Each structure stands twice: as C-alpha cells, then as structure tokens.
Amino acid sequence: MEFKVDKGVLGEALALVSKAISNTAPIPVQINGVLINVRNDSVKLTGSDSDISIQKTLKVADEKNRLEVIDEGDIVLDARYLQEIVRKIDSSIITIEVIDGTFTKISGNKAEYKINGMRAIDYPNIDFNIDTDRYKLKVSIFEKIIKQTVFACSDKETRPALMGVNFKADGSVLTCNATNSFRLATKKVLLEDEMHFDITIPAKTLNNVASALVENLDFEMAIDETKVSFIFDDTIIRARLIDDVYPDVSRLIPASFMQTLQVRCRDLLDAVERTSFIKSEGKNVVKLTIDNTKLDISSNSQEIGSSHEELDIIEFIGSPITISCSGRYLNDALRSIGSEIVILNFSGELKPIVITEKDDDTLTQLISPIRGQ
Amino acid sequence: MEFKVDKGVLGEALALVSKAISNTAPIPVQINGVLINVRNDSVKLTGSDSDISIQKTLKVADEKNRLEVIDEGDIVLDARYLQEIVRKIDSSIITIEVIDGTFTKISGNKAEYKINGMRAIDYPNIDFNIDTDRYKLKVSIFEKIIKQTVFACSDKETRPALMGVNFKADGSVLTCNATNSFRLATKKVLLEDEMHFDITIPAKTLNNVASALVENLDFEMAIDETKVSFIFDDTIIRARLIDDVYPDVSRLIPASFMQTLQVRCRDLLDAVERTSFIKSEGKNVVKLTIDNTKLDISSNSQEIGSSHEELDIIEFIGSPITISCSGRYLNDALRSIGSEIVILNFSGELKPIVITEKDDDTLTQLISPIRGQ
Lengths: 373, 373
Prior knowledge:
Strand content of chain A: 35-45%
CATH architecture of the largest domain in chain A: Roll
Low-confidence stretches of chain A: none
Helix content of chain A: 10-25%
Radius of gyration of chain A: 25 Å
Mean pLDDT of chain A: 93
Number of strands of chain A: 24
Number of domains of chain A: 3
Oligomer: homodimer
C-alpha cells in the first residue's frame, strides 16, 4: 500500500473522521485507529466507535487532493500519531507506505516516520451503502436546526430519548424538539418535498454533523431501522438512532399568554451574562421583574453576593410580573435567537417562560421557572 | 471607603496582583483576597501568599487611572469575583463603595453588584518599605536573563536551591545559573555599576516579575537578608529568596571541545519539534549523528515508532559523533537562542552537549547526554 496526498487535505480529513473515534469503541482496533482503504481511484478514511462512523473519500479525480495511488491496500493507523505527523511534517505532499506487514512509513521532504499499524482485517465491517430513501436537505436550514435545539438536550443517561433531538416529519412540516425536561427548544421547518419520519438523533452525532457541514452545499439524509446517514459529496456520517420513544412535548407550550415583553436581545443577553458568576451551590438564578417601563434583572447568592441591573424595554403588555429562572438556560435560549428583538411570553410566575423571535415564528424556547426566589 | 477608577486600569492591576494570590497562603484572608487601601491621593492593591507579594499603586495624579477618591478606607475583596465583575461590567468607570461593614457595592452604568468583603485588619502587614541598597536594572536585559535561564530550573522540592535562578554579582559581572542537574543554563551580563550579591530567586517569582515588566522601563532591585524586591514605577514585587546554598556549577562547563557543529537554529528546532511525539515511557529522546556533510536526527520508541530526518549543516569540525539527549531539553535550549546560527559543542558521546550562540558568548546551555540509545 502506498499513496501520496496533499498535507492539508489529509489533515482535514483526519480531523473529521477522528470525531468518530473514541475510547468507548467496542473493538480495540477502533480505539484511536483510522482505517485507510487505498484503491486505484481513491483513498477512503474511516473512523468509528460503532455508535457513530465517519467515512471520508479522497478521489484521485479531485485535483485539490493531489492524490497519487502507487499501490492498493488497507491499513489501520493510530489517528493521533498520524495527525501529529501530518501537523508537523514540513512538506506539502505526504507519502504513506506500508513497508512490512503493518509497519508503515510516513514521509515528506527530508523527514520520515515509521509507525506500527494495525491489520485492516481486524477492523469491523461498517456498511456505508445506503439503499433506503434519501431526503435532500439544505445545509443552511440544518445548521440552524442544530444551533437552535441541540443545546437543550439532556446529558443524563437516565432518559436516553432526551439525549437527542427528535426530528418528526409529518408531510410538509419538520418539527425538531430538544428537551431535558426543564427546558424545551422547538424548531419548525417547512419542507419542499413530502417527508415522513419520526427519529431521535443523538446530540453528539448532530454536533459532529455540524462540524462536517460545508456552507452552501446540500446533502442527503437516509433513514433505516436503527440508523441515520448524512451523505455529503465525499463524506458519509452514519450514526445509531436513539431507540427510545420520544415524549409528546407539544402540549407543554401554552397557546396564549398573560404577559408579553419585547426587548433588544443583545441587551438582555449581556445583562444575563453579567450575572453569571453569582452562583448558589453552583447554579446561577436570574430574577426578572418587569413592568410597563423597565426590566429589572437581579441575581443573589449567600456565598458571593448579589447583582442588579435595569434594562430599557421596547414594549410590555400585561400586568407587572416577577419570575426567576436558570441564568444558563436563559443565556442559551437567547443565544439561539437570530432576530434583533426577542419576545418573552409569560403566564404567571409559576408557568414556563416562552421565548420567541420577533420576525420568525418557527422557533420556540421554553424555560421552566424556579419558584420562591 | 469609596472610589471611582478606570475599568481597564483596575482590570490590569487586579490581573497583576492576582499572580501573587494562591491557595498556599497561610492566612485565610489572603486566599483569593485582594487588599484595597484607599487614601486621598491613591488606591493600593495588594496580593500576597507570603512567599510573594505584589503591590500596585494607582495614583490620583496619574490621569490615565481616572481615579477619584470619595472616601478613604480599607477592605479585602475576593479577587476572582472582583475580576469577573470588572471584566463584565458595561462601563468605562467603575465605582467601589463599602456600604455596610465589609459589604461592598461595585457598580458601573446601570449594573451593580454587592459582594461580601473581608476585614482589612485581618490581612497580614506586609512591609513594602525598602531601606537597603537599590540596584538599577534594564528591563531588556532582565527579560533576556529570565527567558534564557528560568526554564532550566528544577521543579522538584527535594533540592530547593535548584528551584530558582542563582544571581551572582561579582563586581562588574552578573552570572545567572539555572539547573535541574541534568541541564544547565548560564547567562553572563556585564554590569554598568559595581554590584555584589549572591542570591537565588524562585523561578515562580521570576515568571511573575517577567509578566510585570513593561518594555523600555527600567526598574530597581533591592536585596535584604531573606527577600528581594523589584521596584517599578507603580508596582513592587517582593519575594522570599531561596534559603539554601547554590551548588558551584562553573566546573560543569568544559573549557575545550572535541567537536563543534554550526547549524541554522530554526532548522534544528523545527526538526527536534517534529520528533517530539515519539516518546518512550513519556520521554522523547533525540539521537544526533553528525559528520562533515550532514546532521542526522532520529528518535525511536517501541510503542509508537521512529522518526528520521537529515539536516544540512553550516560547518562541522572534529571526528564524526553520535550522541543522544532529551528532545525537550534540546528544544528548550534552542528556543533560548537569539542568533540565527547555533553552535553545538561536544566532547565525546558521554560528555555534556554545550550550546552557544554564534554572535554572543554570554549564553551557555548545557545538556547531559543519554547513554546507550
């Protein structure tokens, strides 16, 4: 096995497939290992921990790869060492050659490294051939869905369903929900093509997909029994779906509100951030006191002290209200807002705060209040 | 106690005095606490862990401080919270006011914080008045001394003397030595004024002094029995000296050599860095094989593999030699070299490698070889 490839291209490909490499992989050769399959027309790099697998294909035909295949073959190399070498080598073209069994030479310019590889035959067979229906998706839309929902997922393994974002396509509308049962992010997207599915994709997978997204490039999604695949031009990300019923969260969002506040999103976000270090037992709680003229933000902790700030508002409809919630949740929700003006809706101090955008009704962020603060 | 001060000035002053604040302080109020002494003409900020104390004076007379003293007084505040507030507050002027006992209000623009302070009376009395001789030093020279020696200190507490840099002024020459007994950095400086002392300053103190140095500003050093003080315009750094006899290291440097190599410093440093991840039991060892035409750098590890690279040399005098040493030590030594060309001197493969600059004979870096590699 021997090939030459552009250093930058190889470095980026390794960075991408390495996202799927983790210590939790069930088979030793997968841990730290990147599978390299060299064929006359291409080199495929694969990283996988069985839950998520990423394969990048470098084609000879693609000039920017500067790929030259001298000898076909397969090898598994330690991705960390390979990345280290690619980062450090002082040459724009890198040659990788198996010289004896799994012993592999990596060279460029006057420097050469020899590292012990592992046998490709010991690497599990990961099927990247997708024969189910494929859905075309726009990168810009998918990116927004991830940015606006994935942070609201739970990181607790006690309820696996909540560790992912639920994607439910019901004909022409795709509804994406993420919740940890104290907050909920809901994004609705109008679909160009008719789609029908109800799947929950792990947050980790979505973060990996987000980092693989290349601007203005569309991609396809394919779903089978237990897996979802994201198919890009040269990259396939294939991940296990969460096999757990997603709760019905649609009833959580109130249909009407008692109070509605409009405020400049940036001002509110800055003020919330300024209180973030005022923590009680590790948690920052912000108290919002709102009337027709102003929004008052305060935070209090026995150990540290208190903060207090007044903000100008744009509009408030309803009777004055005082309500407390997690500063971090409020911060996350406000960060997901794209419009200049944010709307906070209330139904009394014991009911969730519902945050929406002024110019776009497709996003809803819901945060449970904290009582008695 | 109440004063107003420029946000940027306060932030920088806190960052500086915080370098002396550590968990190892013997008195609780010192841990995380910054002492603030407000007088009509100035505000003094002090941080100390007893081993090292830093005091910054903000004078009303200095316009850039934008300092206005409304009420004199003293308080100790948690430096972390104060820094956090200063970083986040949305105002170029910050007001700090003790409102009740030690309860302190910090405000700017529309935001205000109230934090619990501590009593200044509980803070140890640190004497910053220096009545011994003062030596004038140039920042540019002192900076170079620190950069070229301090990395070679030991981090092991078994031999306290080696945890600092020894400064020995013998009339017109200042000799600075740092060693961990496997490597030695020696810098000699010609003094403009006659000086006589022999002190060992902890590496940690020197790193703090380095970060307090302001370009092109001279400062003074004063030494008494057990302490050294660095006196800047508005800042005093006062630190405990290492109370342990410094070993005589002058005999370690050979007077003559059997082989001398000249090579471009950058080329050698890059090549050494490229081998750095080839580690055996956590240690990277580089083997240098040199003859009249080239320098061969290699590195080998059972676990990871090997690296090999050839470098062009400028000149080699002597018979061919093969010698091994710590890659990290060689890297550190080469980084301290200011000239384009570095000289490596050898006296056989069992004797130390002595590294000097081509255009400057004031710096000597010595590295013990590693046998049988």
